[in-house]
Amino acid sequence: MCGAVRYTVRGEPFHVGRCHCADCRKRSGSTYTVYGQWPRDAFESTGEYATYDNDSFCPRCGSRLFLLDEEGVELQLGSLDDAPFELRPEAEIWIKRREPWLHEIEGASQHRENRLQK
Ligand SMILES: [Zn+2]
């Protein structure tokens, strides 16, 4: 939000999803997150960021940034500058925690908890 940390991703994400899990609720302060996952080498960042349990955030304004591990980078689509996107969740996870007033995303696979690992 403040611009102290900037990042870019190149190309298409290998997965886009919406998550209603307890951690996503807590970390976003909202009732779900919408995220994209890209290969690690499609990602570049500048600026100092802080981390908590692999999750990173801006030490200046507190905005949540990205989640980096060996497999790739996951980021909240709302953190990118351009909007809206062509990107659309293809899976919805932890729907047992989905608020009853939220509709399921048409065409997205539905999972009570996590998706099965491939
Ligand atoms: Zn989650």
Helix content: under 10%
| Ligands (ions, cofactors included) | zinc ion
Overall number of structural domains: 1
Second rung of CATH, namely the architecture: Alpha-Beta Complex
Question: At the third CATH level, what is the topology name?
Answer: glutathione-dependent formaldehyde- activating enzyme (gfa)
Q: How many H/I helical runs?
A: 1
Strand order of the largest sheet: 5-6-7-8-3-2-9-10
Helices and strands, in order, run as EEHEEEEEEEE
Structural class: mainly beta
Short characterization:
With 118 residues, this protein is mainly beta. 6% of the residues lie in helices and 35% in strands.
Describe this structure in words.
This protein is mainly β. It has one helix and ten strands; from the N terminus they run ββαββββββββ. The strands form two sheets. Strands 5-6-7-8-3-2-9-10 form an eight-stranded mixed β-sheet. Strands 1-4 form a two-stranded antiparallel sheet. A hairpin with a 2-residue loop joins strand 7 and strand 8. It is globular and about 40 Å long. Bound molecules: zinc ion. The site of zinc ion has 5 residues, from helix 1. Zinc ion binds next to helix 1.
